[in-house]
Design goal:
Length: 255
């Protein structure tokens, strides 16, 4: 028969450790196991520091940019004020130039009466007599439009020996650069009795031939006086010629 040999001493705590038994296993760290921890700590410290440094740098740059923007805005305001002054001066200059040009254009349209009378005197036939000469005003135009002829025209009345003499007088005036050839015309021309000469002896009668009473009108030319310098000099209008030449030297009137 079998026998059971049971040793209850081996079942006591710590019985296996006596006499060189098994030792209880303890956890241990491998060599170099702390490196990842150090790396993690370094990363955790380095990146926040780097982020803080970058944030400080960005804030500093932003403050610098804001300061430059403030300076530039101030300079821009100063430049805008100066530009406004320049625009105002330019507007005033253009207004003055426009006024001067308007005055010059009116001045350049002047036809002296002395020159007009000399033209009529040079071109009247020997058989034509003048009783009156008067200037006619320029045509009225609508508001905002310029007058076609600021100088107006001329009206001549008198007597002539015949109708042909009146026609010759009109054609002669049309050839003058001081008048518009297309605007000259005979308004009236009719036969009339000649006035009886004064101082005849009593009882003496004289038969006087009839004459033609006429009225001629013509418009003054639009040609500027600056383009009629030679004709004006020939008519003795030296004062106007001298003023025009002075304006040409200053550039107000183009040559």
């Amino acid at each position: 028969m079998y026998s059971l040999d049971i040793n209850f001493l081996n079942d006591r705590p710590g019985a296996k450790n006596q006499g060189g038994g098994e030792k209880k296993n303890r956890p241990s760290l491998p060599v170099g196991g702390m490196t990842p921890i150090y790396v993690g700590v370094a990363v955790a410290v380095f990146f926040p520091a780097l982020l803080g440094t970058a944030l400080w740098f960005v804030q500093a740059q932003s403050a610098n940019v804001d300061e430059k923007i403030a300076v530039l805005e101030q300079e821009n305001q100063q430049l805008e004020a100066k530009i406004g002054d320049i625009k105002q001066i330019r507007a005033q200059t253009e207004s003055i130039k426009s006024e001067n040009q308007a005055l010059v254009s009116v001045f350049d349209q002047i036809k002296p009466w002395s020159a007009m009378l000399q033209v009529v005197r040079d071109r009247i036939p020997a058989t034509v007599r003048i009783e009156s000469i008067k200037q006619t005003p320029p045509e009225t135009v609508a508001q905002g439009q310029s007058a076609p002829n600021r100088a107006g025209g001329i009206e001549i009345s008198g007597t002539a020996r015949s109708f042909n003499d009146v026609n010759d007088f009109l054609l002669s005036l049309k050839q003058s650069p001081f008048f518009k050839s297309a605007e000259g015309k005979i308004v009236t021309a009719q036969l009339a009795d000649s006035p009886i000469p004064q101082g005849l002896p009593a009882g003496v009668t004289v038969k006087v031939p009839s004459v033609v009473k006429y009225t001629i009108i013509s418009k003054l030319s639009d040609v500027p006086a600056s383009e009629l310098m030679r004709e004006l000099e020939q008519k003795g209008t030296v004062g106007l010629v001298a003023r025009i030449r002075s304006l040409q030297r200053t550039g107000v009137i183009q040559k």
